[in-house]
Amino acid sequence: MTVLQENNTGKYRHEIKLLMSKAEYVTARTRISAIMKPDSHSMRNGDYFIRSLYFDDINHSSYWDKIAGVSHRKKFRIRTYNLSSDVIKLECKEKNGDRIRKTSVNISHDCAVGLINGDCSLLDASDSFTAAEFLSLWGGKGLRPSVVVDYMREAYVEPIGNVRITFDKGLRAGLSGVDMFDEGLLTVPAYPNGMVIMEVKYDDFIPKALSMLVSSVSGEKIAVSKFTTCQEVLNSYKPQSISI
């Protein structure tokens, strides 16, 4: 069976994003790490590598909805960690106003390769709402691979308020294709000056001391997504059409 386990809490969470310089990151990291513990991945391995393959339809709706600031939108991706095929997730990230919700389902390597190559026959809609919605868009709107997104993540957690703070570094866009399992995939930096993305996610509240610390962190509050940023980087490398 291709679909192994679905993670769907149905709970929306708040999300804050800051774009910061390396110097601002060092300061923020020093403060955050003093009062928060690394998440389970960071505790075992330190920073860990995330590679995602994002999907979009034939009208590039996910990209243009983000650019237009559509309040309620969804995007789908396949995600792996540390270039391992042990855990491969098909995820839906949904945004509604200033809140986000993520659902995911574990899929096999063969299923993921099929989706990359335009074959969804190994994805079983009957076992997963996430898979069913993905397949509906696949057939109805022509959902297909769009761009590979890479970065290193450093993550911290606080159980009270279910707070999670991540620092995502070295954001890169896949340039030579959409095969996320290609170890030789050519990627290019999205932020040549080494900017870091800090994300703060929480359920209903942040403990006061942590809230004050987050408020004191320097950085530019942003609404841009890694997907749209990397899609624009990829687009900038495509040959421009010339009108005569």
Keywords:
alpha+beta; 29% helix; 244 residues
In short:
By secondary structure, the protein is α+β, with helices and mostly antiparallel strands. The chain has helices at 22-35, 40-45, 61-68, 109-116, 129-141, 208-216, 226-237, and strands at 6-7, 13-20, 37-38, 48-56, 72-81, 88-96, 99-106, 144-158, 163-174, 187-189, 196-202, 220-221.
The coarse silhouette is: globular
Number of helices: 7
Main β-sheet description: 8 strands, antiparallel, barrel
Oligomeric status = single chain
Q: Structural class, from helix and strand content?
A: alpha+beta
Low-confidence runs of at least 5 consecutive residues: 1-6
Helix content: 25-40%
N-to-C series of helices and strands: EEHEHEHEEEHHEEEEHEH
> Strand fraction band?
35-45%
The strands making up the biggest β-sheet line up spatially as: 2-7-6-5-4-8-9-11
Number of strands: 12
Mean pLDDT: 89
Question: What Rg is obtained from the alpha carbons, in whole angstroms?
Answer: 18 Å
State the separation between the terminal residues, measured CA to CA: 54 Å
Report on this model:
- Strands 2-7-6-5-4-8-9-11 form an 8-stranded antiparallel barrel, surrounded by 5 helices.
- It has 7 helices and 12 strands.
- A hairpin with a 2-residue loop joins strand 6 (88-96) and strand 7.
- Mean pLDDT is 89; it is low at 1-6.
- It starts with 5 loop residues before the first strand and ends in a 7-residue tail after the last helix.
- The protein has helices at residues 22-35, 40-45, 61-68, 109-116, 129-141, 208-216, 226-237, and strands spanning 6-7, 13-20, 37-38, 48-56, 72-81, 88-96, 99-106, 144-158, 163-174, 187-189, 196-202, 220-221.
- The chain is α+β, with helices and mostly antiparallel strands and 244 residues long.
